[in-house]
Amino acid sequence: MATIEIEGRITKGVGGFYYIASSDGGKIYECRARGRFRKEGITPLVGDVVRCGIDSASNTGLISEILPRTNSLIRPPVANVSRIAIVFSVINPKPNLFTVDKLVTSAMYAGIKPIICINKTDLSSGGEYYDIYSGAGFDTICLSAETGENVDKLNEMLIGELTVFAGNSGVGKSSILNRILSRAELKTGEVSDRVERGRHTTRHSELMPLDGGDGYIIDTPGFSSFSVTDIDEKELCALFPEFAPYTDDCGFRDCSHTVEKDCAVLKALKNGKISNSRHESYKAQYKEILENKQY
Ligand SMILES: Nc1nc2c(ncn2[C@@H]2O[C@H](COP(=O)(O)OP(=O)(O)OP(=O)(O)O)[C@@H](O)[C@H]2O)c(=O)[nH]1
Ligand SMILES: [Mg+2]
Ligand SMILES: [Zn+2]
Q1: Enclosing domain of residue 169
Q2: Has residue 287 been placed in a domain?
Q3: How many angstroms separate the alpha carbon of residue 76 from the centre of ligand 2?
Q4: pLDDT digits (tens, 9 = 90+) for 34-59
């Protein structure tokens, strides 16, 4: 029985089996993890780059080593994420910017640059949302999975990256990915159906290679409940990059940028330099952090 050593990336984990796309040519191997990992409390994650010993007769084997991660998310459980595409739709369902901004804050906290994807622009232009997010300095794109508008522009931004698609159920994540990946046939669902059934069309996370081979994307079940509670309230303003030009000019060193009289952020808000909805989200997150601290 000949064993070969391969290096590759975990694309899927199901019932203790991991599916690994080898770095040379993308062949898929089915592997288990060495018992040692469990003893050390390490769980291999989708996105991990691993070394495996493969039995060349059966193409199955064991993960022997997990290479160092750049980061890892808890929900969805994915390692080495380089971008988070935060998707919302202009209508049906209508945007919940508090939810969007929580995802943005979570991404910033993890040190991962978000891409704001405003979908279903065939139904309404979404220009006001584009202004909010591009104005705040984020990579922002208006697109339609229905007509294909700007899907190629998004595709370009994903090259060389491992991108997680996040956002509420029904906003069109799977529909966008079906457009981007020629091989994908992800299940999509009617928005009304899913509200009645109270469940999501997409159930698990799987890494899918981009058509060109350079880059991966992950569809996720609609989620919005990233918690920002492990962020300190003093750190929060640093996660709102559009506040940065002003925070040094606040009257108090410990300015919370919520109510203070001599606050440069509030002044910028008044002058239209910072958007209302982003500042509302900031205040809501600030309040939530304080509330969760009280016991
Ligand atoms: N008009 C229009 N409808 C769209 C667009 N993108 C998606 N839809 C529709 O929106 C519904 C939901 O799309 P999905 O792709 O399943 O949404 P999802 O974000 O993957 O939802 P979950 O998997 O539940 O998280 C489907 O009926 C799609 O056909 C778009 O750009 N325009
Ligand atoms: Mg989906
Ligand atoms: Zn201030």
Answers
A1: 74-219
A2: yes
A3: 14
A4: 988 988 989 999 999 999 999 989 98
Distance between CA atoms of 195 and 101, rounded to whole angstroms? 22
Given ligand 1 and candidates 176, 186, 188, which is best to mutate, with the most ligand atoms within 8 Å of its CB? 188
Same domain, 23 and 117: no
Kindly report the length of the chain: 295
- Model-wide pTM > 0.85: yes
Tens digits of per-residue pLDDT, 163-191?
999 999 899 999 999 999 987 666 776 66
Q: Integer distance in angstroms from the first to the last C-alpha of the chain?
A: 59
Q: Hey, is 265 helix, strand or coil?
A: helix
Structure tokens at 69: 């991660």
Distance 186 CA to ligand 1 centre (A): 11
Q: Do 199 and 253 belong to one domain?
A: no
pLDDT digits (tens, 9 = 90+) for 134-170: 999 999 999 999 999 999 999 999 999 999 999 998 9
Q: For residue 200, is it within any domain?
A: yes
State how many domains the chain has: 3
